[in-house]
Amino acid sequence: MTLDVEKIRKDFPILKSMANGKPLVYLDNAATAQKPRQVINAVSKHYKKSNANVHRGIYKLAEDATAQYIKSKETVAKFVGAESYRSVIYFRSTTEAINAVARAWGDVNVDKGDHILITEMEHHSNIVPWQMLAKRKEAVLDYVKVSDGKFLDHDDFVSKLSLKPKIVAFSHVSNVLGTINQAQEMTKMAHEAGSTVLIDGAQAVPHMPVNVSEINADFYAFSGHKMLGPSGIGVLYGSEEILEGMAPFHGGGDMIRTVDFQESTWNELPWKFEAGTQNIEGAIGLAAAIKYLKRLGMENVREHEKTLTSYALDRLSHAGVTIHGPGKEDMDKKAGVISFSMKGAHAHDIAQIFDSEGVAIRSGHHCAMPLVTKILNEPAVPRMSFYIYNTQAEIDTAIASLDKVREILKIQR
Ligand code: PMP
Prior knowledge:
By secondary structure, this protein is an alpha/beta fold. It has helices at 5-10, 37-50, 60-79, 94-109, 128-137, 154-161, 183-192, 212-215, 240-245, 280-296, 298-317, 347-356, 369-375, 392-409, and strands at residues 18-19, 22-23, 25-26, 88-91, 115-119, 140-144, 146-147, 151-152, 167-171, 196-200, 219-223, 234-238, 256-259, 264-266, 322-324, 337-341, 359-360, 362-364, 381-385.
């Protein structure tokens, strides 16, 4: 079913904005998504009608807030195919979720000389925590190569797995190339090598159907703010068996069963990993965002983005730019993220000129410096990224802005 984009756009108050005197064209969805009134209202309603701390009070308001908090976890678990909400831990973001695994799981399971395997297409949030772990433990950090500036090199993956890494961590979808990695197949191969698997799903869960049980990942992380939800709420899915065996990451209120002067015992899952007052309104907003996405249907969301991306790739292929990542011939492995370069124009100048036309795109290394500077060989790249409310007309506006770039920077075709 195709999305009714005009109807969807009416739900997003910010899309009525003007930017530099032009109608806003928001194409920076890989950085964060805009919020529909259903999410804004859910957060606002919570503050107006059910605000109280969770798990603590025995009065009606606190019980309402607690019920909504647990319901949010059940909604998340169902949305990504987790067995139960016991596997759903809330953190601030994908970044904090990965750091929690690198600390709470990594510090116990990775020893001197062990291998940790990640890939050359990772976001810093799936690089730096592993670098820090490798330094703490004197472990070896290996990278699966990116071939052709597009896909992970299968043979290199096989060869690095033969080093029996303790953990294999990779992104489901690259935030620079838009490459969709074969998460299920890679997880199976990593498990056969005896590795534990963490998947960074920050760019996948908002944009396509994801089932963590089918993928069989041990850990899977994603962020609320990229999927229409509030900032400050991120999800770590973990297999119950592994989470049960892990010590907590943060200590404090709520995550304990008993506390004595020297020793404490831990609460049950998922509460063992959530110390102190949580982002209750964030959890409620995230559940509202998931409700919104479910109503559209994630298959339809993916199809809409596929159509837009394919259209944009077509237009860009005649626009005198170099497109990075998989192209039109690989649409099944390409998400709605397009980075490109234009000879003679710096990425920041392109983004600035786009901005003067009301078009919001991102330029830089996109928190993937090794990929952008070493593999794409660019100091920075401009990036367009799409979501449910974007239209072909908006892509036309973006492409027309490229003519403006050429005109201002005096670049010949
Ligand atoms: N991984 C990927 C692939 C991302 O695109 C991002 C956000 N740009 C992150 C991780 C980090 O997400 P957050 O900032 O919400 O922690």
